[in-house]
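Posting this for the archive.
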Amino acid sequence: MKIKNDFIQLEVIEKGGEIQSLLFDGKEVMWQGDSNHWKGKNPTLFPIVGNTYSKSYQVEGKTYSMNNHGFIRDNNLVCVKCDDSKIIMELKENDDTLSRYPFQFTYQIKYSLDKNKVNIDYYIRNDSKKDMPFTFGLHPGFNVLNFEDSYLQYEKKEIVKQIVFNDGPLYEKDVTLDKWQLSYKDIKKYQTIIYKGLESKYVKLVQKDYTIKMEIEGYPYFAIWTSDDKAPFICLEPWYGHSDLEKVEVDFKDREGMMSLKPNETFKTGYSIELIK
């Protein structure tokens, strides 16, 4: 499925309902995935970000398990609408999802274009007769030709908490966000850079040829990741929750960052990718 205007062209595929291609000024913006670095592209994370510490969880006395980041990226979504201005992809529960997550739901991704901006909106409805615990996150990968010539610029200079999980016991430290030169070394040091409590409504990925302005307002966590020190991409990841970074002995619904929908209730969220010369 494709939509385009005078500024950009967007292609979406059934697998995961993901962006296959985003062209701007003749250049491919999105990471295409490969076996040498990371096969993923831009999955959405539902009903879990990362995984539980034990890789399993219980609901009403029964044990379930999911792959990392849930199951949206492993399923084919159905296109329920595609016209000149928007694409809507949808997934409902199936035998596979019910074996991993015992809830009925309707999950939709809506893509629309506004000049040089792609708006991506998510709608998650609980179709079960019981409350549905879940969390949600984004994992878009963006092409970066040269880390040394690229940097992140936050909307405003601010002090946030960084969650450090790979240096002994889990801890948090204060860091100042403003402008960050892309650095394989920094990402490798922390495995994944995870911040919480950002007030900035957007972050810009500034490169030589163009700038990506990514709206992140409303997300409690923001992560930065790439696969290795030669990977020509970076993932900028707004999350509502996160993986269990240490052993946690609480119910699935009580994990940090979990939310809950009552029957027939809908959760709405989204982000945007604006491309600037």
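The two ends are 26 Å apart (CA to CA). The chain has two helices and 23 strands.
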